[in-house]
Amino acid sequence: MEFIDLTPMRKAAGTVRLPGSKSISNRVLLLAALADGDTLVEALLESDDTRVMKNAIVALGVKVTEEGDALRISGCGGRFPQLVADIFVGNSGLSIRTLVPAIVASLSGCGDPAAKVRLSGVPRMHERPIGDLVDGLKQLGASVEWLGQEGYPPLALKPALLGAERVSVRGSVSSQFLTGLLQAAPLVARDKALVIDVEGELISRPYVEITLNLMERFGVVVQREGWSRFIVQPGQRYVSPGRIVVEGDASTASYFLAAGALGGGPVRVVGAGRRSIQGDVKFADALATMGAQISWGDDWIEARAPASGKLKAFDLDLNHIPDAAMTLAVAALFADAPSILRNIGSWRVKETDRIAAMATELRKLGAVVEEFPESIKVTPPARLNSAVIDTYEDHRVAMCFSLVTLGGPYVRINDPQCVNKTFPEYFATFAGITTPVPVVAIDGPSASGKGTVAARAAAVLGFGYLDSGSLYRLVALAGSRQGIALDDEARLAALAAALPARFDDERIFLGEDDVTDAIRSEECSVGASRVAVLPAVREALFWRQRAYRQGCGLVAEGRDMGSVIFPDTPVKIFLTASVDARAERRYKQLIDKGMAANIDDLLKDLRDRDARDSQRAVAPLKQREDAALLDTSGMTIQQAVDFVIRRAAAFAK
Known about the structure:
Elements: E1 3-6, E2 9-17, H1 22-34, E3 38-42, H2 48-59, E4 63-67, E5 70-74, E6 84-88, H3 93-107, E7 116-120, H4 131-139, E8 143-146, E9 155-158, E10 166-170, H5 175-188, E11 194-199, H6 205-217, E12 223-225, E13 229-232, E14 243-245, H7 250-262, E15 264-270, H8 283-289, E16 293-296, E17 300-304, E18 315-317, H9 322-331, E19 339-342, H10 354-364, E20 368-372, E21 375-379, E22 387-389, H11 395-401, E23 411-414, H12 426-433, E24 434-436, E25 439-443, H13 450-461, E26 464-467, H14 471-481, H15 489-497, E27 501-504, E28 507-510, E29 513-514, H16 522-531, H17 535-546, E30 554-558, H18 561-565, E31 571-576, H19 579-592, H20 599-615, E32 628-631, H21 637-652
Parallel strand pairs: 2-15, 3-14, 6-7, 10-11, 18-19, 22-23, 25-30, 25-31, 26-30, 31-32
Antiparallel strand pairs: 1-23, 2-24, 3-5, 4-5, 7-9, 8-9, 11-13, 12-13, 15-17, 16-17, 19-21, 20-21, 27-28, 28-29
Helix pairs in contact: 1-2, 1-3, 1-6, 3-5, 4-5, 5-6, 7-9, 9-11, 13-21, 14-16, 15-17, 19-20
């Protein structure tokens, strides 16, 4: 799919069983591969990143077999058996940053002169720094060849005897560098202890906690002095725990917990709770700071909207939850004042420059965003815009911006399959806990009575009302009033996108001006025909019409409401009448207004218009297979309205 359109959501509630943690899954795969004995890994995340790691350890000679939904990994006892390999890591930073030290340790003392392991990835991976990690490995004696730009993948690893007892690594770029060194340390510290010193502040400390916890599960204990020094004593080796179950992904939990806070809730995530070893569960604490109601269990967390109904602004240091912090950036759109996300400089070297990406996409929605080297400030708009969101091949951008739909607008997510990196079923799961704002789409030919029926049905249902056919006339009228030439596509499109059109019963307003009669003039009709052929105007009105889908619901009438504008709605009605009945109605309407009318002329005009509507190249008028046919030739208006109400009620159950 090139894109996915997400409709405005009225509420969010339900339970989500989380997929396995990516952070835990990839660490467990590598540790099990390096251990003595077989490890049965259950609840492993199935995603692009975990496939990268699985394929890598297989390429390095580790036996991996499927047992139902689990994987059995036959460990290699600390040294990969196959050391001539080309490994593709995609855009998985954790994979390359943990594989490289483990491979370097396996190559130490290797007697095969042909041994050489190359690692490469997608173009973005070749822009993500790995120089600090390699500098640390070179302190141990590693032989590394840069195959492109120095300090970045791709690279090649060759045999070299590791002999140093101390290594230092910067902690301010990525905690994954330290994780890689820690996981390889027992393979290096065979006769002497290995000391790892961290230079500067260590970011993302909770992820290092995951590493230490899992290493201990596999039999290796790391001593540490605060967050600045880690010591691995000699003689330790990884030993399989036999069976290990991957807990649910706490980073993924952030999207659903935020949905509960934004969409009323309750939304419960199962698979991570107060016993979790993942630092990202602290995202729930950040939501609580915003006023969300949070409940905890051993393996679950639940979120509801604030009792006040409005989220509070925040100013938080988010160094400890950098991935989940992206979700907070979107939640800031719903806060009561500007919010500041601090100490997120690591975003710059992730799957994309996440600070720049988030700032760009948040602005599309109407927010004012101030971007700094290691922080951003988000000022929410009075009203969110519908927007087309670019994802930069970054799964977390795609997932967190889906939450915007809980504030009313449509959102189009480009390249939605990028979520395959960590959660291929994300959009289906999100749809399972959200309820769209309902739409009754009524299409039909001219003078079929759909306008009157739609307006009255909307009043009964308590929904908004959209007379889509009037929008082009309104653009022409507003353009003329502002002195805009009717062939000035750019200015007319901008006007159409922000058109202050309001439909109240059967009256039409432009701002506060009742223009019901004005847009029916011959001049306005001609102008509407001229602006309707402009592609940019049509595109702007496409999104403008969708913007009416808000609040309790919408009754929309026109010629392509069910086929183009709201194709997802289950309540589609094709309202029609015989041409004779429509001509009679139009004739009576004109006479009642004191206007001259000729029945033969009206018949001809309607037949000509029907032909044009049914044969036009863009969205021709026709009944969709999933639309209910309503022929009103022999009906009263009230009978037709009752039919619409019954259809809407049937789908509401």
